Amino acid sequence: MEENKRSEEQITKSHPPKRYEDEIDLREFFGYITKSIAALVGSVLNFFLRVILHFRYVIFRFWILFLLGTVLGGLAGFLYQQKSTPYFETNSTVKSKYLNGIRFISEINKLDILCQEGNYTELGKRLGLQPDEARSLKSIRAINFYDYYSLEEAFGNDEMLKDSLQMANKIHGEEFVLIMNMYRMGTGLEKIQKGLQSFIASNDYVAQNYKTSRQLLQEEKQRINHDLATLDTLKDRINQAVFQYGKNGSSSTLKIDLANTQSLMADPIKVYEGNLQLLERKQEIEKQLANPAKLIFINDFADFQQFGGLGKEKAIASGALYGFLTILIGIILYSLNQLLDKLQKKYIKV
Q1: Which of 93, 210, 226, 278 is disulfide-compatible with 298, CB 3.0–4.6 A?
Q2: pLDDT range class, residue 21, cuts 50, 70, 90
Q3: Coiled-coil intervals in this record (predicted)?
Q4: Closest Cα partner for 177 from 93, 98, 250?
């Protein structure tokens, strides 16, 4: 038996199984890929490790420079925070019936120009403020309500909304968004609002438009009173006819004579409908006449948002970080320059 096994092994060694040269061993293939990935990961980790070690070397070698840069950066941040002036922004929606469109925006721009020029004496006179109170204003501007919310930009390409956008522009044509920037948050807001109302009311165009508008409202109110009196007469005739119908009994015929009246009022039901419409319009006119304000604040100034300026701790921390990074970048550039000099001496012969 042992001799047979030995003879078989000798045969196998002398005659190995045939393999084709183009045959791929999947185990060898995947083994190669695994080794390549492991080598790549190792190289990346080795690179980052070298970077960390070199970074530590740089820190320990130039620690005085890093400390100096960090301290100077923090000091610069502190000085910047002391000199920088933060401002606060707030806005309000207003309605200007007697001065709208570009005229209203131009009037508000006059106030903004005074802010930019620093002419707080004149600004205070126009708004009824003391110069110190006016000094809290950084800027003030007005934007049309329709433009402020960018309705045209957002929905202008939609043909289905075209009519709705035009209607919205017409409805909100008298409304504007006032955007005010202040150096001191919430300083005299109520007084500023009253000052803006007085400023708009003092405009000659507003005064004339206001006077004409009130005259037209008074005339319309007189016409409504006349029409209501006419309708009261018609209603009396209708009531008499109804009373007579009830008196004669249900067997009689109800006859309402509205001769010599307008064809629109020939129908008794339309008489009462017309009377109701006139009363509603009269109430609306009386409400407008009772409100003499030429600039209406739909919502007051509120919800301040801070811009510019940093807190003391944030300014110092930011400055220290910038100082540290500045020194680090400088050292990296210096090291790179030294490396290039060595390469030049080694490979380039002058």
Answers
A1: 93
A2: very low
A3: 207-237
A4: 93
